Amino acid sequence: MPTTFPENKRGVRGYRPADVDGFLERARTAYDAAPGDKDALTSAQIRETSFKLVKKGYSTGHVDAALERLEDAFASREREIALAQSGQDAWLVQVRETAQVLLNRLARPSRERFRRVGRFTQGYSVDDVDAFAVELRGYFQEGTPLSVDRVRTVTFGAERGGYSEEQVDLVLDEVINVMLSVR
Questions:
Q1: What is residue 21's three-state secondary structure?
Q2: Choosing a second label site near 98 at 20 to 30 A (CA), which of 8, 50, 140, 183?
Q3: Which InterPro entries match (predicted)?
Q4: Side-chain half-sphere of 113: how many Cα atoms within 13 Å?
Q5: What whole-number distance in Å separates Cα of residue 102 and Cα of residue 104?
């Protein structure tokens, strides 16, 4: 039986094939579903999807690349639906408002952009996150080129008492939503 993706090399765990194949089948059905339908799926849900790692699993790189393309396709569809429902002007106002909220967060003083975790708890490196916040501000304020992939794949070191990973990740998800909305 042919597989959807190549398996990882021997000894390297990959995504459980049954989970990946089941999710892709759900995505095929969801793409044709009407918004609000019980089978509907959003680009944000695709971004948040994860699979169990197993021996003889699918190559994580191949699956992740496919999920990114799928997320892009769903985001494009969502934009088309939003434009049809509310019109371009209303849609642009909402995207601008979201972008401004993000920019306000990113413009906070260094070391104060996000909530901090406790002194003995690991969080994201404050310096790493703040450095990336400068890149994001350049994108929003000056139009400095920045790819969605850069935002999707950014990694931060860990430090005790660092920024809250959950809060930083939520902001990065919203950045991706805005970037996909204006593509």
A1: helix
A2: 50
A3: CHP03543, DivIVA_domain
A4: 31
A5: 5
